[in-house]
Amino acid sequence: MTRALPEGFVLGSATASYQVEGAAREDGRGPSIWDTFSHTPGRVWNGDTGDVACDHYHRFDQDLDLMAELGLQAYRFSVAWPRIQPTGRGEANTAGLDFYDRLVDGLLERGIRPVATLYHWDLPQALEDNGGWPARDTASAFADYAAIMGKRLGDRVSTWTTLNEPWCSAYLGYASGAHAPGRTEHAAALAAVHHLNLGHGLALQALRSEVSGDPDYSVTLNFHVLRGEDDAVRQIDGLANRVFLQPMLEGGYPTDVIEDTASVTDWAFVRDGDAEAIHQPIDVLGVNYYSTTAVRLWDGRSERLTADGHKGAAASPWPGAERVEFPPQPGPYTEMGWNIEPAGLTELLLDLHRRYPDLPLMITENGAAFADEVVPDASQPGGLAVHDEKRVAYVRDHVGAVLDAVDAGADVRGYFVWSLLDNFEWGYGYSKRFGIVRVDYETLERIPKDSALWFADLGRTRRLD
Ligand code: PNW
C-alpha cells in the first residue's frame, strides 16, 4: 500500500549539542556536567568523551549542505548553554552566540526551518556545583539564559523547545546515575523533576517577552508506553509521563504520584505560585519515541527484574517504585536492546490526542541504533556505502505508525529522525550509531547511509511505500 504524507507534514532530522559539536574548550565555552562525567573514569563506555564528537562546530557548513542535499525541511538542534554562559550565569559569550547565529542563518539560506532546543542535557558545571536541577536557582538561571537566546535568535527560529526529555535529566542524572551528573539520590531526583518543570515555565515566559518573531513554543518529552498490570502501569505512567504532562498542560501535580513517593520526599520544594508558573501555553508537544516498556508488580521473593533499558546502572531510576519490576520484552531489538514496536507510537499519539485534543503533536525523535558496515560502492560519490536496511525498515514502519495515528484523527505535524549523524550516544559513547549519515571517527568523514537516501526519497515523493 502506498500512502501520501499529509499536506504540510514536515520531515527533518535532529541532533544535540554535546553529541555532535566537539570543540569543547573553544571560543569561551565553559565545562558542562557531561564534560565532567565523560572525563570521569568508568562513567562512559570506553572512556569516550564529547571533546571532538563529530566536530560539527567546525564542519557545520558542510553538514548544512548535507541536510540540503537530503532535502530536509527542518533541523532540530540544541544550544549548548555553556557556550552562551560559561558558568551558567551573567554576561553572554559573544562567540557562542555567533555560532548559533551562523547556524540559523545557514539553515534559512538553504530553506531549512530551525527548530531550537534550549536544554539537551549540557548543564553548565558551575550550576551543578551549586546544586544542579535539585536546586531551585537552576530554574531561574535557565530562564535568564532563555531570554538571552530569545533576544538573539527570536527573529529567525521557527520553533523553540525548552527542554529535551526532562525524564532523562531528572531520573538518569539524579536517581540511577547513568547520566551526568551521576548522582543516585531519589529525593533529589524528584526535586529535579519540579525544577525542570519550573524552568520550562519560566523559560517560556522569558522567551515570550524577548522574541520578536511569531514562533511555535514547545517542549519535548520521552514518553513511556507501558504494557502490563494496572497498578504497575499507573505508577510508572505517573512518574514517567504525568509528572511532566500534568503540571505543564493542566497545572499541578498528580496526587497519586505525590502519594506513591511520600516515603522519598514531602514535595516541600513546590511553592505557592509554581503551578501557575509552570502551566504556560505551548503550541506543539514534542514526542520522542523509541520503544515500549513492560511492567508488573514484583512479588518480593524472586529476583527483581530491572531490564528496563537501564542495565548496568547502579541504582533504579524510579523513586518510590520499589514494588514495580520490568520484565524483558519480546524482540526484535535494536542494538540498544530496545524492542521494536511501531504500534506503540500509534497508540501513544492517539492517547495524547484523546487527552489533549487541541494540542498539535510533533515527532521530535525516532530512530534506531544498529551496527552498520561500510562497503565499497563505485556508484556513490565517496565510493563507499552503508546498507542499513534494518534502519530503513525501522524508520519506514514508524513513519507508517504516525500515518496510522493521523488517519485515526491525531494532529501530528511532522517527523524528525534521530539522528542526522552518528554521534556521542551518552553513556554508550561512540559504540552505538543512530545516524542516517555515518561518521568515520578517525577521518570525521560523513557517508550518507541507505537510510539517508531513502529518507531523502520520502521527502521527494511524499509517498510511503
Ligand atoms: C534520547 N532511556 O535519549 C535523547 O534525546 C537523545 O539525545 C539520544 O541520543 C536518543 O534518545 C537515543 O538514546 C534517551 O534510557 C536516552 O530510556 C536514554 C533513554 C531514553 C532516551
TrEMBL record:
Keywords associated with the record? Carbohydrate metabolism, Cellulose degradation, Glycosidase, Hydrolase, Polysaccharide degradation
EC numbers: 3.2.1.21
This chain's source organism reads Georgenia wutianyii
- Tell me the domain of life: Bacteria
What span is annotated as the signal peptide, if there is one? none
Q: Which reaction does it catalyse?
A: Hydrolysis of terminal, non-reducing beta-D-glucosyl residues with release of beta-D-glucose
* PANTHER family to which the protein is assigned, alphabetical: GLYCOSYL HYDROLASE, LP05116P
Please state what the protein is called.
Beta-glucosidase
Q: Which family does it belong to?
A: Belongs to the glycosyl hydrolase 1 family.
Q: Which Gene3D superfamilies match?
A: Glycosidases
